[in-house]
Amino acid sequence: MRVLVIGSGAREHALLLALSRDPQVTGLAIAPGNAGTGRLAEQHDVDITSGADVVALAREVGADLVVIGPEVPLVLGVADAVRAAGIACFGPSKDAARIEGSKAFAKEVMAAAGVRTASSEIVDNPAHLDAALGRFGPPAGDRAWVVKDDALAAGKGVVVTPDRDVARAHGASLLESGHPVLLESFLDGPEVSLFCVVDGETVVPLLPAQDFKRVGDGDAGPNTGGMGAYAPLPWLSADVCRDIVSGIVEPVAAEMVRRGCPFSGLLYVGLAITAKGPAVVEFNCRFGDPETQAVLALLESPLGQLLHAASTGALAGFGELRWKDGAAVTVVLAAENYPGRPRVGDVITGSEADGVLHAGTARRDDGAIVSSGGRVLSVVGTGADLTGARAAAYRILDSIRLPGSHFRTDIGLLAQEGKIHV
């Protein structure tokens, strides 16, 4: 089986690494890739938002399966074009990808499925923003205002703040850009990311993970695309995970089928484990970054066969997934000034060590690896437990040099210390 992966981040690097361990995967290609993925796969330059271009490349490389990593091509319908060409594709249709592409659509689906989530309101007129803010946030009994971009925002379109002026400024800037604003009630409790491979009403869950969105230690600073993650979660019981699948993911998958837009691909549910039980923060239509890097580091089942089964209607017969014992921790090394405009073009040393996955990197003509984006590398450590996995990840980070770079030092620390409670 030859597999073409679409994307260029650490998530796609992690997918390639896991696919390379599948004995039935005989060849790998990636488009466009980065400075690290060339060690695992043929690299090709393609417009990943063009269905026609992706189909042409899939035919050129003889792909038996196309795996689409990022959300943008999925929301634009690239998976539809690949399937229409008769090539198996792991990734939802344009209609199904609205579960991430439109938060308003996701809320409609959850309401119809009877799934618990934050109460919300869409604001599409600046004149209505102040009144809507008055119905949410601290005056309404919440700890904070939650203000979101209704469309895709690469993980950075959300502001959670106790400061009304900050909340209003974010909402106003979104509306000025022509983006509707979603206001939500605040969900209190530890957050969980659960990936599920889905085909219609068949749901196969992966290990739960927790990611870290804020840029600084102790959850300080602005939101980012994600600064680290760990899996599994020692504080979350298997019973709660089963309840999330049966009470949230399966009803949503069934509702998508009922609406005529069945989901086929990776359905990512972000949750808060509140005092009243799990509640949905968001759904995504693809593998999440940086959780993928930690979760796939522990997967023993053959990933290529799993994704191919989901893409060809055979997921129900795949069987239970197998996992390595222990834990995995991902720490993101970011460029100077990220999540603002990052400094790029600096030479990176130590980036080709085991456990290092590339994202914002490029290779110069002289062979040097340089930074080319905000989140530059993901460093993955594994161990018998979180203590060992964290130590392994930070040991690798100590050997990497990138001028001005920064990373969080507390990924998984509270869980390691037993300070997270449901």
List the helices and strands and how they pair.
Layout lengths: L1 E6 L2 H11 L6 E6 L9 E2 L7 H11 L3 E4 L2 H5 L2 H7 L3 E3 L7 H4 L1 H11 L6 E4 L5 H6 L10 E5 L8 E4 L2 H13 L4 E4 L6 E9 L2 E10 L2 E3 L3 E4 L4 E4 L6 H21 L5 E11 L2 E8 L6 H7 L5 H9 L15 E8 L21 E3 L2 E3 L5 E3 L3 E9 L2 H12 L15 H4 L6
Parallel strand pairs: 1-2, 1-4, 2-3, 4-5
Antiparallel strand pairs: 6-9, 7-8, 7-9, 10-11, 10-15, 11-14, 12-13, 14-17, 15-16, 17-21, 18-21, 19-20
Overall number of strands:
21
Give the end-to-end Cα distance, rounded to a whole number of Å: 43 Å
What characteristic shape results from the CA principal axes? globular
Spatial order of strands in the largest sheet = 16-15-10-11-14-17-21-18
Residues in helix, %: 25-40%
Count of DSSP H/I helices: 13
Q: Note poorly predicted spans.
A: none
Strand content: 25-35%
Assembly annotation: single chain
Radius of gyration, in Å, reads: 21 Å
The gist of it:
The protein has 422 residues and is of the alpha+beta class. The chain has helices at 10-20, 51-61, 71-75, 78-84, 98-101, 103-113, 129-134, 164-176, 238-258, 291-297, 303-311, 386-397, 413-416, and strands at residues 2-7, 27-32, 42-43, 65-68, 88-90, 120-123, 145-149, 158-161, 181-184, 191-199, 202-211, 214-216, 220-223, 228-231, 264-274, 277-284, 327-334, 356-358, 361-363, 369-371, 375-383.
